[in-house]
Amino acid sequence: MQHQLVVFQPLKKCLVLCLIILLGACASGEHAKVLDQYRYEPVDNMMQQVDSALNNARTDGKLAMIVLGAQWCHDSVGLAEQFSSDGMQTVLEEHYVTVFIDVGYLEDRRKITQRFDYPTYFGTPTVLIVEPNTETLLNHDEVSKWQSADSVPADEYIRYFSNVRGKQKSQSTSKQSQKLNEQITAFERQQVQRLYNAYAVLGPQLKADEAGKLENKDGFYKNWKSVYRFRSQLQADLVSLKNMAKKKKQDKDKSRLVLPTYTAFEWETK
Prior knowledge:
Elements (H helix, E strand, L loop, with lengths): L2 H5 L7 H6 L2 H6 L17 H15 L2 E7 L4 H10 L2 H10 E7 L7 H6 L10 E6 L4 E2 L16 H10 L4 H4 L6 H33 L6 H35 L19
Parallel strand pairs: 1-2
Antiparallel strand pairs: 1-3, 3-4
Helix pairs in contact: 6-8, 10-11
């Protein structure tokens, strides 16, 4: 992808989108037909949705796919459009039981992601492919790929989702030593909480902008960009840290992991 698009892709509610198209058109999903099961709709009990998907996947001998996204998000809608195509319908019906979870306006969905040992959603859509019997996340290192779902070619959708089942062993992770695991977990929890604090700042502004009632647009876009940089880097860093910890364990390297640091947000310095 071009650099400009990379900067403004996941959780799309960004300056470049607002300058090019109306967000309402972006979120409407009118570019292509979207099947009802691939819409992000609020429900009272999301975990019940997840439980049902896992149970059905176990019964049918399929994988469970949990997708967290939003109707206002360009990439979430792009993924829904691709999933609604005839080619992807064949793949999904054969291999997956799929459930779409609405994140609303950046609301907390940690209970869902952390059930599968994934810290949070760093962008939308977040696609979690789960082996239902062990509830093992099979695509841990590749979750970020689908946060730019609208830019992924249709044939790549077919190729990728047709082959996940065969990657189960390579995608699973070994247990890390307790010390390294505790170090990463503590860092992860601290930084994910910072991210949710940021979502709490941006969410109401995002909702106001959606309704055409946001007054300080420049401030919102500035904060959006800074949070984007943080969440994208954090997601990549956590994958890297866990892979390094695994390698250290294999090499019997007892040295301490060097944890990254991040620039403070504007509201954290006041």
